[in-house]
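Thread: Newbie trying to understand structure tokens

Hi all, I'm a second-year student working on a class project, and my supervisor (Dr. K.) asked me to get a predicted structure for one chain before our next meeting. I've only ever worked with sequences, so writing a 3D structure as a token string is new to me. If someone could post the tokens and maybe explain what I'm looking at, I'd be very grateful. Here's the chain:
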Amino acid sequence: MKAQAAGPGRSRILPERAASADAVLEAPSENVAPEADVTPMMAQYAAIKAAYPDCLLFYRMGDFFELFFEDAVLAARALGIQLTKRGKHQGEDIPMCGVPVLRAEDYLQKLIAAGFRIAVCEQLEDTAEAKRRGGKAVVRRDVVRLVTPGTITEEALLDAAVNNYLAALCKTPGATGGYALAAADISTGECLVLDCKPADLPGELARLAPKEVLLGAALDSDRALRAMIEGQGAALTPLPDAYFASAAGEAALKKELGVAALDAFGAFSPAELAAFAALLKYIEITQIGRKPVLRPPRRAGGAGSMVIDAATRANLELIRSLGGRPQGSLCAAIDRTVTGPGARELASRLASPLTDVAAINARLDAVAFLLDRQMLRHKLRDLLKGAPDMARALSRLALGRGGPRDLGALRDGLAVARGAAGLLVEADGAPGEITAITMRLKTEDGGLEARLNAALDAALPHLKRDGGFIRAGFRPDLDENRRLRDDSRGLIAAMQARYAAETGIKTLKVRHNNVLGYFVEVSAGAAAPLQRPPLAESYRHRQTLANAVRFTTPELAEAEARITGAADRALAIELACFDELAALAMAQNDALGSMAAALAELDVGCALAALAEEQNYARPKVDDSLAFRIDAGRHPVVEQALRKGRGEPFIANDCDLTARRLWLVTGPNMAGKSTFLRQNALIAIMAQMGCFVPARSAQIGVADRVFSRVGASDDLARGRSTFMVEMIETAAILNQATTRSLIILDEIGRGTATFDGLSIAWAAVEHLHDVNKSRALFATHYHELTELAARLDGATNVTVAVKEWKDSIVFLHDVVEGAADRSYGIQVAKLAGLPPALIARARQVLARLEKQHGKPRATLEELPLFAQLAEAEPEPDVDLDCSQILAALAEIAPDDLSPREALEALYRLKELATARPKRS
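---
Reply by user tm_fold:
Sure, no problem. This is what the structure looks like when written as tokens:
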């Protein structure tokens, strides 16, 4: 049998199940021929596998999950484990590999990272139950869940600082329709909905960064859409179009929220409800009978959030660096949170800066309050360090995958919430944001904390089946069974001593074996008293051996029953206690979820205050104006890197786009133009997420969008050159930017011929100024563009200062008024270590080009710019004067020159030869 398994990327997980575990023997898989070598177990495996053809089937056999056929081949290759064989099928060996159940999460993590989906097939009964149904009966098994990239809940498989979103995408009807997207993180219960224009979809997906995206058949056929989603690192799962039904989505959402109408949660479009239909149906399919806890959906994006496209997010390295790692990103630079939920909340705020001035200032008020109260902040942060991830613990408990540590997380989280609320209540002058957090932390828990404290031991095992997590004294019957389990040896020894005294047989022993259980054993010569009344009434004969006689007593039989079942009964009592406590927690789910979110928000507030104090950040003034005024701004990531690396200070720079909204930035490469551009965009984003900023002062008129086109690379997968990528990104900016937008552009037009590029850059500057009227920083090496500052009333020239010294340059990283007269490219090339001979030749070529062409003679009024270029003047035809060349030759000692020195000398001679005038 050849079993198909999912590979990286797309997959089809079908909801229609070919067979149930109870009927697998009656309905063997069509892939398995009815041969004599097909065992009942393999027939069961084949039937279950047929229901999940695109998943690796983790088939439980005792203490291992086994994989067979092609699943085994794929898994062994992906995991680097041994591929073995088990029996034969159709005359061929059956490939097989397995992983221990206790270490299954480690292997699941590797397989999910490799792009596989896994169907987990558990044993639903033990072997004893199977044997009671017949000697050849197979243990009942069935798939209990599907593990896909977007439905992971295990702590070991999740990044504590990152949300794990599953998203469903639906097209809005109409020729110009956009997209509706519903998303849920079932590990925390967060639920989002948004709608966006087609041009904004890549940015919104980059904002959410879903791990898995569900598509209907129509969208799945859109190759460009699939490539875009997969390019952002999400797995694609096509579903039938029938799943995307708005009526089904409305009914499912009402059922999920337990309401008769959705009006209280906002208005949902038909496309949004259709996306919810597919999302909730897929969760139902993958969780197989288990219902995760989902919070009421909140609307993401829209008018309340700054729009940032995917290219800008990548260019500015908001969440991840260009290398794809958190290190080097803005998020890593500003993250001072002490909890996983706090880190997720910070990343969410950074990914979705606000545009509502009141909401932004409410966040800034909270940060200012915690910054001014250093002692309170330190106490809160010390307390928060002990706050576990309550949201994810609740989710695992709801799905039946929780353990004692998840109950412990709720216990400890409730204690932290109570302590934090007490500290905040005592603080005077708390702003509205802090007061709201305090009220949520004080929410009544229905006695859950007290119950958990009474029930749970201090040290908790990872798995509930390990037992030992219920505190002594909580259940008397549990204590008794534990005593019997742990003290059976002492109990038997005491009975043996009493029996010896009672019978007068000093050699009497109480022994045990697997056949008789516990029994009394005496020598054959001492057995007679036990076979006569009155002792014979209590000591009943069991077995006679050559040298010994064995007896049992009613008391011993009763003790045996209690001892041998004590461990099972103790575990059963603990599991019953676990279920009771989990049910009590689920009854308080809404309160606990709100409390967990409040702790995360408090962590972020304290972290941003600590950051402001540590890095000397200032509170920005955020308003509804079009002002953009930064005094002594700094790049938050570069500044920290300089301080940690070389201990160098960062050179701060001002930026004021209020009166002159378009700055033309010139200066050599490596002088810091790109850093200057990026830092101002980052300061705007930080301000609107509610964070203090790296500046002496800042006034930010709310930006509806931030655009960045800094640096470019080709997109070979879609057949796009570097220049094409540059033009596509520039087109997106010019077509979407408004007067409220903030734009940073770097080196537009550099990827093509000089005159073509200059023409494009020229026109782009004019369009930004006259049409978009956005606040913009435009960096360029085309010095001709600086003439536009005299023509455009909203434009001005600034340059990054450098100092020439000994045929080299020193970068001052200081942005000043004015325009650079040249790019110093050859000096930068020299600093980079290009060969001296190459540098000399470059100088020679540059001098000749400047002499031959000079500057374009066209004036600003005579556009197109290059139509009036003068013909190059011919050089005068003159004779060669060799006197200087001969003098230079006389100074050369060929035997003393290295190869490089000889080459440099040759270039000097050539320069003399080409520079001498000729006479006719």
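A couple of things are worth pointing out once you decode it. The longest strand covers residues 795-805. The chain has five domains: 21-147, 158-300, 335-445+589-615, 478-575, 621-833. Feel free to ask follow-ups in this thread.
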